[in-house]
């Protein structure tokens, strides 16, 4: 089985610091995908630091649990996370990296990659699913920023 890649590179109409603070709040992913994520559980010792794990419960197409670990970050520049243990998603060995940089004070360039092995599903459908979610997070950030959230 070959590794596949989903990739989105785009300009998001929010300041870099806003984007980073929202992305960096690893425990708050539900605020960025409210119609996809039913619930997020975090351990009592959670600190939004590398090594921390979140338990994400989906309710739409892939119902069930996804366990994700914050693997590393460089403040205001880069974050990587992975799916560990079991997952209701049709992938194995999922690792994602997000890098951001200023284009100007009001816009952020986002470069979001996901690498994974697809299982049981059409490979192109799985690649498209992740691209859709990366774009949806960016779209939701723009909307929430313009709404003052």
Structural features, described:
This protein is α+β, with helices and mostly antiparallel strands and about 150 residues long. The protein has a single domain (about 5-145), classed as START domain (Alpha-D-Glucose-1,6-Bisphosphate, Chain A, domain 4). It contains 2 helices and 7 strands. It has a 7-stranded antiparallel sheet with strand order 1-7-6-5-4-3-2, covered by helices on one side. A hairpin with a 2-residue loop joins strand 6 and strand 7 (about 105-120). The protein is globular and about 45 Å long. It starts with a strand and ends with a helix. The relative contact order is 0.25.
Tags for this entry?
7-stranded antiparallel β-sheet; 149 residues; Alpha-D-Glucose-1,6-Bisphosphate, Chain A, domain 4; 7 strands; alpha+beta; 2 helices; globular; 45% strand
Question: How would you concisely characterize the structure shown here?
Answer:
The protein is of the alpha+beta class and 149 residues long.
């Amino acid at each position: 089985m070959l590794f596949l890649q989903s990739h989105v590179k785009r300009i998001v109409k929010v300041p870099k610091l806003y984007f980073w603070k929202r992305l960096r709040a690893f425990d708050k992913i539900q605020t960025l995908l409210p119609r996809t994520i039913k619930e997020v559980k975090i351990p009592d010792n959670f600190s939004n630091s590398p090594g921390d794990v979140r338990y994400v419960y989906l309710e739409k197409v892939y119902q069930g649990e996804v366990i994700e670990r914050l693997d590393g970050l460089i403040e205001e520049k880069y974050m990587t996370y992975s799916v560990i243990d079991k997952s209701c998603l049709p992938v194995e060995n999922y690792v994602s990296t997000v890098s951001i940089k200023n284009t100007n004070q009001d816009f952020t360039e986002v470069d979001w990659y996901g690498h994974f092995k697809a299982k049981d599903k059409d490979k192109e459908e799985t690649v498209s699913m992740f691209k859709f979610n990366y774009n949806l997070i960016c779209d939701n950030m723009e909307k929430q920023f313009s709404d003052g959230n």
